[in-house]
Amino acid sequence: MTAIFGALDRDLGLNDLEEELVLQLGRIVEREIAPRAEAYDRSGAFPWDNIRTLNGLGMNGVFIPAEHGGTPTSYRCFLRLVEVLSRGCASTANTWATTFNAIHPLLVFGTEEQKAKYLPRIADGGLAAIAITEPSGGSDVLALQSTLTPDSTGDFVLRGGKSFITNGNVADLIVVFAKIPELRTPREQLTALLLEPGTPGLVVGKSEAKLGYRASATVSLHFDECIVPRENVLGGVGQGFTVLLAMLNRSRPCVSAQAIGIGGAAFDEAVRYVNHRTQFGQRILDFQGVQFMIADMASKLALARSWLWRVGALVDEGPADDFDIEASILKVAASDAAMSIATNAVQLHGGAGYMTGTKVERLYRDAKLTQIFEGANELHRARIGRSFLDRRGPGT
Ligand SMILES: Cc1cc2nc3c(=O)[nH]c(=O)nc-3n(C[C@H](O)[C@H](O)[C@H](O)COP(=O)(O)OP(=O)(O)OC[C@H]3O[C@@H](n4cnc5c(N)ncnc54)[C@H](O)[C@@H]3O)c2cc1C
């Protein structure tokens, strides 16, 4: 990428150790992870090689407190690592980032016993999953139908099912959201819990074949009367909505970092191609129409990246979690930028861009998901728009 983007990264304010980690990951992505991406995309196999590579670098330590065996970094550094990884292989980035997103609520809401039990395994390279979406719907979270009912011993029985769960078949820990029907409103009923793989009654579906992110594992889960010990409730009975919001405030910037990684990789591919492909006796970048396309792609990327670092800084400055509109703006801007840049990158490659196995063709398919998961962009647009409603009513 050009010097413009490098300058943007210098404003990030990472410390020397963080800068070194980003460089180290960048080298490994270039040397090992990116070269494997096409084969993993074609086979749809889970990228265990890449997970081993990341674990060799101790990457899970980034989101684990030192007292539980980690070497934590700032959230901006985490986002930068997700971006770098996504440039090489979005599926691997999503696998790693989902583990962070699932573990974050455990760090914030978990009891000391829960942390002591689960964090060492994750620090050691384990994976985690978040199970919210159900066959009945994903956008309307409060309409989920999985239930938790108390049994005679004071533990809970989990019934229901989930769909499209990233890492659901490879996770060492699954954060599940379900409802306790005895409580009053859907919001009060929502409860988060920690579910271990191998729990009797937990049935894991086969890995879904997908348009993009093909090596990221996506499965359905079925809960056939799983017994969940009461001590596995996360954040307290009826506190699921609070847990969920805190989690989404971190996971949405994280998906945006994936989008920007995908968009950045597509931009680089396009720039490389238009500089070397000639038609009518000149480089295609010599045509003004192509220059305009590249200019629009660069502008979208630069603006989305600078807003990514803005939201990252808001998280690091904490402790307030009141940046959900900023996070929604980021999610929409970054994922729409990624889709638009990847679409134009295919266009600029002409027929070659339409061929299976061309890098931009994979990036184009990967980019689409970023507009759908972590809340479809229409939902985010509605939230952003609603935030400008004058509470005093019309005509005031
Ligand atoms: C590859 C992949 C991985 C995923 N990983 C996970 C995971 O790890 N954990 C998890 O819990 N979920 C996961 N999901 C689920 C994902 O978050 C949902 O698919 C997403 O939130 C949309 O929900 P839905 O599919 O039920 O679509 P629906 O809610 O049925 O919505 C369909 C479409 O309707 C429109 N729409 C819906 N509501 C509104 C509205 N209020 N205003 C305007 N338009 C609207 C939007 O265009 C939306 O895309 C994953 C999905 C995919 C595809």
Description:
By secondary structure, this protein is an alpha+beta fold. The strands form 3 sheets. The protein has a 4-stranded mixed β-sheet with strand order 1-4-5-8. The protein is built from 12 helices and 10 strands. Flavin-adenine dinucleotide binds next to strand 1, strand 3 and helix 12.
Q: What's this entry about, in short?
A:
Helices cover 53% and strands 13% of the residues.
Describe the SSE topology.
Layout lengths: L2 H8 L5 H28 L4 H9 L18 H14 L1 H20 L2 H12 L4 E4 L15 E4 L5 E11 L6 E7 L6 H4 E6 L6 E3 L13 E11 L4 E2 L5 H37 L1 E2 L2 E2 L4 H30 L6 H25 L10 H12 L6 H10 L10
Helix pairs in contact: 2-4, 4-5, 4-8, 5-6, 5-8, 8-9, 8-10, 8-11, 9-10, 10-11, 10-12
Bound molecules: flavin-adenine dinucleotide.
Tags for this model:
396 residues, alpha+beta, globular, binds flavin-adenine dinucleotide
